[in-house]
From TrEMBL:
Its cofactor is pyridoxal 5'-phosphate. The keyword Glycosyltransferase does not apply. Keywords: Aminotransferase, Pyridoxal phosphate, Transferase. This is Adenosylmethionine-8-amino-7-oxononanoate aminotransferase. It comes from the Bacteria. InterPro entries: Aminotrans_3, Aminotrans_3_PPA_site, PyrdxlP-dep_Trfase, PyrdxlP-dep_Trfase_major, PyrdxlP-dep_Trfase_small. It comes from Marinobacter oulmenensis. GO terms for molecular function: pyridoxal phosphate binding; transaminase activity. CDD domains: OAT_like. Signal peptide: none annotated. It holds the Pfam family Aminotran_3. Transmembrane segments: none annotated. Coiled coil: none annotated. PANTHER family: AMINOTRANSFERASE, AMINOTRANSFERASE CLASS-III.
């Protein structure tokens, strides 16, 4: 038994962190690591960012915490306006939370309350993709399509209707277009089987994270899903907890395809690893309807506190001031070329996919059949351990759904330099 009272998941022994600067971390033995996955794709501005530190200290000198029902606070108002501006006013209302799971829970509950307020309480199903990841709390887990996480809780969550998500690497159809048509056909079929007027929303990640190894949608797919939502009168929720706030080279990933959701969740990069802060963004009329019918029955203690929002504001300001959206586009291209070179060199690199600073690498046993390595090979853990030994942190996952194989994410901070990418 471990002598420490701390516990998380099972896993190998870990080094103890000492300190960090920029894209590097050091352990207490003096070894350095390049943070190739921004922690959990959250330290978007690298470590020890002076602008963020100064903004946090300045806010601590004023007031760290006020409760949202007692005071308005300037940082919260300013960050909410910034987020709305980042969507170009596509979404006009903001509800703060402290994590990605809370953002997804909030989206689920707001969407349900919206239909209650409209007298459509028969709408009780969510549609989401398999594979997908939307969080670890029970509501967010209910829309998550990743079996190892779902199984122990399946009978105590209200699981969503799961439909297959885009997989342009392993698709069975002859072309991407045919693949998208087939996905949309299956989605429609499932919605009709449940009853079109029983659906609250379709939830999806425009670019996936660890559960899919950065699988991407395309424009035709998003347009098709938007049309289905409009036809059946349900809402479209984009989960940009991981892909939002500049990670893909746009403020939000949906902006690459120009298909606008009704609700959007974001977190991780918003606090940039300095303080937990997340947000639900949504259409004003949805909020107005809920507010006119008793208000949103939901909230978390730390939501929207001044220190959280001052941190988020400083993170967004830093992305603007340091032109990091441009850096993501340029360095992202460099990273892609490096990963493509790995693919050309090693027969076990099956696919490199992603956008901006969000890349997934899928490993296969056989390139022509795309057969994954057997689970017993424990490849994802071995590759991660090897990379760590070499001083590189990556974010691994094995798909245990049988839908894919081992993959890892390469997602360094948006601040990474040309020289650091090539290390
Ligand atoms: N949604 C997505 C797309 C995520 O990638 C994650 C976390 O990885 C979450 C939700 C849950 O966020 P958190 O871990 O902050 O609760």
């Amino acid at each position: 038994m471990s002598s420490s009272p701390l516990f998380y998941q099972a896993g190998p022994a870990m080094p103890e962190v000492s300190h960090a600067r920029g894209v590097f971390l050091w352990d207490t033995e003096g070894r350095d690591y390049l943070d190739g996955c921004s922690g959990a794709i959250s330290c978007n501005l690298g470590h020890h960012h002076e602008g963020i530190r100064d903004a946090m200290l300045a806010q601590l000198d004023k007031v760290a915490f006020t409760y949202r029902t007692q005071f308005e606070n300037g940082p919260a108002m300013a960050l909410a306006q910034s987020l709305v501006d980042m969507t170009n006013q596509d979404l006009e209302k903001v509800f703060f939370v402290s994590s990605g799971s809370e953002a997804v829970e909030s989206a689920i509950k707001l969407a349900r309350q919206y239909f209650f307020a409209r007298g459509e309480s028969q709408r009780r199903h969510f549609v989401s993709l398999r594979p997908s990841y939307h969080g670890s709390t029970l509501g967010a887990l209910g829309v998550t399509g990743y079996q190892p996480l779902e199984v122990p809780f399946a009978d105590i969550t209200q699981g969503s209707i799961k439909v297959p998500g885009p997989d342009f690497f392993r698709r069975a159809e002859a072309s991407d277009d045919a693949h998208v048509r087939e996905l949309l056909r299956q989605t429609r079929e499932q919605i009709e089987a449940a009853g079109g007027d029983s659906i609250i929303a379709i939830v999806l990640e425009p670019v996936g994270g660890a559960s899919t190894g950065a699988r991407m949608v395309n424009k035709a797919y998003l347009e098709g899903v938007r049309e289905l939502c409009d036809e059946f009168g349900c809402l479209l929720i984009f989960d940009e907890v991981l892909s939002g706030v500049g990670r893909t080279g746009a403020w939000f990933a949906y902006q690459h395809w120009g298909v606008v959701p009704d609700l959007l969740t974001t977190a991780k990069g918003l606090g940039a690893g300095y303080y937990p802060v997340g947000a639900l963004l949504c259409r004003a009329d949805i909020v107005d309807t809920v507010m006119a019918n008793g208000g949103f029955q939901h909230g978390h203690t730390y939501a929207g506190n001044p220190l959280a929002c001052a941190t988020g504001l400083a993170a967004v300001e830093a992305i603007r001031k340091e032109n990091l959206l441009d850096n993501v586009a340029i360095r992202g291209q460099q990273l892609r070329e490096g990963l493509d070179a790995l693919k050309a060199r090693f027969g076990f690199v099956g696919d490199v996919r992603g956008i901006g600073m969000l890349w997934g690498v899928e490993l296969v046993q056989d390139l022509s059949s795309k057969a994954p390595f057997p689970a017993e090979a424990n490849l994802f853990a071995r590759v991660t351990a090897l990379a760590k030994e070499e001083g590189l942190l990556i974010y691994p996952r094995r798909s245990l759904d049988g839908l894919a194989g081992d993959h890892f994410l390469v997602c360094p901070p948006l601040t990474i330099s040309e020289q650091e990418v090539s290390l």
